[in-house]
Design goal:
two-stranded antiparallel sheet; 5 helices; 5 strands; 62% helix
């Protein structure tokens, strides 16, 4: 009799976790769509942009369309925001659904973050917990690597 109750409890826990993973995948898919529709970069810009920059062979090229690396930056920013909100909600009220969705957001953020870094066109040197972006006409820029931190 007791073994049957334990099996039912495990089944319910698996269903709840599976629901969290499905929720995370659906929201991540919606964030990919929103990445093409939003302009997060304008929120951080001091002046409006009428062109974007692409690096090719160490030269800067100005283009009028949204490059792929900007799209991946937008998507990774939205996913990172979802990851932070999920774990703030998890701290307030722990839930298996939030935990499972947070894992999906963390993995999705790492993937989109590194796709962004490797498609930006500028040389990137990755170190543990940091990376260096080498740009044209400026000294190398050192950044904290949040992609590694979101998996912890």
């Amino acid at each position: 009799m007791c073994g049957n109750t334990i099996d039912q409890s495990r089944d319910v826990n698996m269903r709840i976790r599976r629901g969290g993973f499905i929720l995370g995948v659906i929201v991540t898919f919606l964030l990919f769509i929103m990445g093409g529709l939003t302009s997060l970069g304008q929120a951080f810009a001091l002046e409006p942009r009428y062109y974007y920059v692409i690096y090719e062979s160490g030269e800067v090229i100005h283009v009028g369309y949204v490059p792929f690396y900007i799209y991946m930056w937008r998507v990774s920013s939205l996913i990172f925001l979802a990851w932070v909100i999920t774990y703030v909600a998890y701290i307030i009220k722990p839930s298996q659904v939030l935990d499972s969705a947070g894992v999906v957001y963390g993995i999705s953020y790492v993937i989109t973050h590194y796709i962004y870094l490797f498609t930006i066109g500028a040389p990137v040197i990755i170190y543990p917990f940091t990376y260096v972006l080498i740009t044209v006409g400026k000294p190398p820029l050192l950044y904290l690597d949040w992609g590694v931190k979101s998996l912890r």
